[in-house]
C-alpha cells in the first residue's frame, strides 16, 4: 500500500522547489494535493508539470487570515478533508548587519514566515482529521545564528515555538506536529542569499557554506521532501513536537 493512500495534503509555498518536489512524491504515494502559493502563473506551471488529476491549486497570501481561510475552505470543497499539512511557505529577505537591516523587510519576513505559519495552523487544525500530521519548514537557521540574516533567523526560531505549542494542543487528537530544519538547499533561495551576501561573488559564498557542512555539500530539495514524506506518513506515528534536522552535520560542527 502507498504511504499516503487516500490522504489529502495541503502544501504552502507549493510552487517553490521543496514544495513542488514534495507534491510530486506525495502524489506518487497516493495523496491528493492542494498547492498554495502567491503566484498563479507559478502554480499553473507546477500543476502542469506534475500532470495529475489529483492536484489542485489555490492562490493565497499566507499572511492574510481571509486568504488562509479561503485555501482551507477550497481544499475541503474539492477534496472533502485534510490529513496532512506541509506548512512550508517562507521568504529569505536581505543580507545585512542588524544595525543596517531595513525595518520594512523585517516586518515582511515576520508576516510571512511567522504569522503565515501561525495562521496556517490556526485555520487548518480545526479542519484536519484526527491522526493527521502537520510539518512546518524551519531551517538550520532555526537552531543556529547566521550573521546578516537577523530577520530570517528570528523567524525560523519562532517557527519552533509555534510547532511546540501546536504539538501540545493537538496531541489529544493524535495529530503530530514537527519542524524540519534543512541546511542550505540547492535552490533559488540560496542563490539569492549567496548573491546578497557578496554581490558578484556568489560562487565563493557557496563554497564557504559548503565548507561549514561536514558532508561537504548543499541538500537537494528531494532529500527534504523525503523527510517530509516520512513525517506525513504513518511511519512517524509516535513522533511529535520534534525538530527534525537535515543539515549534513552542519549543526553538529
Protein architecture, described:
This protein is of the alpha/beta class and 253 residues long. The protein folds into two domains: 8-182 and 220-244, Rossmann fold; 186-218, no CATH class. The chain contains eight helices and seven strands, in the order βαβαβαβαβαβαααβ. It has helices at 17-28, 40-50, 65-79, 103-124, 150-170, 188-197, 202-211, 221-232; strands spanning 8-12, 32-37, 55-59, 82-87, 128-137, 176-182, 243-246. It has a seven-stranded parallel sheet, sandwiched between helices. The longest helix is centred in the middle third of the chain and has 22 residues, at 103-124. GO terms for molecular function: oxidoreductase activity.
List keywords for this structure.
single chain, 253 residues, alpha/beta, Rossmann fold, 2 domains, seven-stranded parallel β-sheet, 8 helices, 7 strands, globular, oxidoreductase activity, Sc_DH/Rdtase_CS
Task: Summarize this structure briefly.
With 253 residues, the chain is an alpha/beta fold.
Looking at CATH, which topology of the largest domain would you report?
Rossmann fold
Mean pLDDT: 94
Q: Strand sequence of the main sheet, in spatial order?
A: 3-2-1-4-5-6-7
Based on DSSP secondary structure assignment, what is the total number of beta strands?
A: 7
The N- to C-terminal Cα distance equals 39 Å
| Main β sheet profile | 7 strands, parallel
The top-level CATH class of the largest domain is: Alpha Beta
Structural class: alpha/beta
Output the helix-strand order.
EHEHEHEHEHEHHHE
Sheet-strand content, in percent, reads 15-25%
Instruction: Count structural domains.
Output: 2
Radius of gyration using CA atoms only? 17 Å
CATH architecture of the largest domain: 3-Layer(aba) Sandwich
The total of helices stands at 8
Helix percent reads 40-55%
What multimeric state do the chains show? single chain
Q: Which stretches are low in confidence, meaning pLDDT under 50 for 5 or more residues running? A: none
Q: What is the CATH H-level superfamily of the largest domain?
A: NAD(P)-binding Rossmann-like Domain
Shape category: globular
Protein name: Oxidoreductase
GO molecular function: oxidoreductase activity
Keywords: Oxidoreductase
InterPro entries: NAD(P)-bd_dom_sf (IPR036291), Sc_DH/Rdtase_CS (IPR020904), SDR_fam (IPR002347)
Amino acid at each position: 500500500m502507498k504511504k499516503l493512500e487516500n490522504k489529502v495534503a495541503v502544501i504552502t509555498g507549493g510552487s517553490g522547489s521543496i514544495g513542488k518536489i514534495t507534491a510530486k512524491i506525495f502524489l506518487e504515494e497516493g495523496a491528493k494535493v492542494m498547492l498554495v502559493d502567491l503566484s498563479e502563473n507559478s502554480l499553473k506551471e507546477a500543476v502542469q508539470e506534475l500532470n495529475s488529476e489529483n492536484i489542485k491549486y489555490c492562490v493565497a497570501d499566507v499572511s492574510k487570515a481571509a486568504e488562509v481561510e479561503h485555501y482551507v475552505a477550497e481544499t475541503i470543497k474539492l477534496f472533502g478533508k485534510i490529513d496532512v499539512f506541509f506548512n512550508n511557505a517562507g521568504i529569505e529577505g536581505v543580507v545585512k548587519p542588524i544595525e543596517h537591516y531595513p525595518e520594512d523587510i523585517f516586518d515582511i519576513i515576520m508576516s510571512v514566515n511567522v504569522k503565515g505559519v501561525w495562521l496556517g495552523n490556526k485555520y487548518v487544525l480545526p479542519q484536519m482529521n484526527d491522526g493527521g500530521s502537520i510539518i512546518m519548514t524551519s531551517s538550520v537557521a532555526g537552531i543556529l545564528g547566521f550573521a546578516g540574516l537577523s530577520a530570517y533567523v528570528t523567524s525560523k526560531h519562532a517557527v519552533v515555538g509555534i510547532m511546540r505549542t501546536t504539538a501540545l494542543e493537538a496531541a489529544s487528537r493524535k495529530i503530530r506536529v514537527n519542524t524540519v530544519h534543512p541546511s542550505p538547499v540547492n535552490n533559488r533561495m540560496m542563490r539569492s542569499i549567496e548573491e546578497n551576501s557578496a554581490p558578484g561573488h556568489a560562487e565563493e559564498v557557496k563554497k564557504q557554506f559548503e565548507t561549514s557542512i561536514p558532508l561537504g555539500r548543499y541538500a537537494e530539495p528531494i532529500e527534504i521532501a523525503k523527510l517530509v514524506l516520512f513525517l506525513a506518513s504513518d511511519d512517524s506515528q509516535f513522533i511529535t513536537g520534534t525538530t527534525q534536522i537535515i543539515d549534513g552535520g552542519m549543526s553538529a560542527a
